[in-house]
Amino acid sequence: MSKTVPLKAIADASFREFVKTLQKHLPEPQKIESVKKNLTSVQIQTLKKIGELIETDERENGALQAEEISQKDPKWILRVRIRNILRQAMEEGLIHLGFVQRYGARYGAIPDPTSNWKYIKLPNGFWACWTCGTDVMGAEIRRPVHFREMPGAGSGEVRTETVPYCPQCEEKPSEHGPPIVEGLADGYYRDVEEARVLARNL
């Protein structure tokens, strides 16, 4: 059974409006070094604080993974601080930095742009729907592999993937996914690389 996070706990109305502008146009990510001379002292302090907090989280808690933790857990509290300072950085005009975009999605400051802005990461590492706050589920789909050189034909290989969906806002995806189209040689090279890795590890 999926849980729902109150929408206000994910983002307030004004930040949701800010995200709407990003959905229309997310700036091309830039490296800090390329814009450093144009940053204000306030922006530099904000970036330093983000770096310190992320370093603390990674040192004390390891990689951000999905785990059951309460909102009173120090991990949750620290990650909410990181999320909030990342949002502050975005509102201070730092959304063009690749660092801010990547960690913004990773810490749930913004919905993940690679998921069409539909899902946002919570401080416990799980995902919630940006629209309604419901926990995101995963559906397993099977995708046949077709050869580019022979449309509609393949070797019989089927790959399984897990795709996210919101059980409240979206229909569960069909277990039959669209085909993966690749060249005959792609599969051969992948098989050869897998054999090399196996040989090195035996």
Walkthrough of the structure:
The protein has two domains: 7-129, no CATH class; 137-201, no CATH class. 44% of the residues lie in helices and 16% in strands. The chain has helices spanning 7-10, 13-24, 32-35, 41-61, 74-94, 98-106, 184-201, and strands at residues 119-121, 127-129, 137-147, 154-165, 180-182. Strands 4-3-5 form a three-stranded mixed β-sheet. The chain has a two-stranded antiparallel sheet with strand order 1-2. Helix 4 runs antiparallel to helix 5 (74-94).
Largest sheet: 3 strands, mixed
Helix content: 40-55%
The total number of structural domains is 2
Which H/E pattern describes the elements?
A: HHHHHHEEEEEH
Q: Low-confidence runs (pLDDT<50, min 5 residues)?
A: none
Based on helices, strands and strand pairing, what is the structural class?
alpha+beta
Q: Which strands sit side by side, in order, in the main sheet?
A: 4-3-5
Tell me the overall shape: globular
CA-atom Rg in angstroms: 21 Å
Produce the secondary structure layout:
Layout: H1 7-10, H2 13-24, H3 32-35, H4 41-61, H5 74-94, H6 98-106, E1 119-121, E2 127-129, E3 137-147, E4 154-165, E5 180-182, H7 184-201
Parallel strand pairs: 3-5
Antiparallel strand pairs: 1-2, 3-4
Helix pairs in contact: 4-5
In short:
The chain has helices at 7-10, 13-24, 32-35, 41-61, 74-94, 98-106, 184-201; strands spanning 119-121, 127-129, 137-147, 154-165, 180-182.
Please name the defining characteristics of this protein.
single chain; 2 domains; alpha+beta; three-stranded mixed sheet; 7 helices; 44% helix; two-stranded antiparallel ribbon; 16% strand; 202 residues
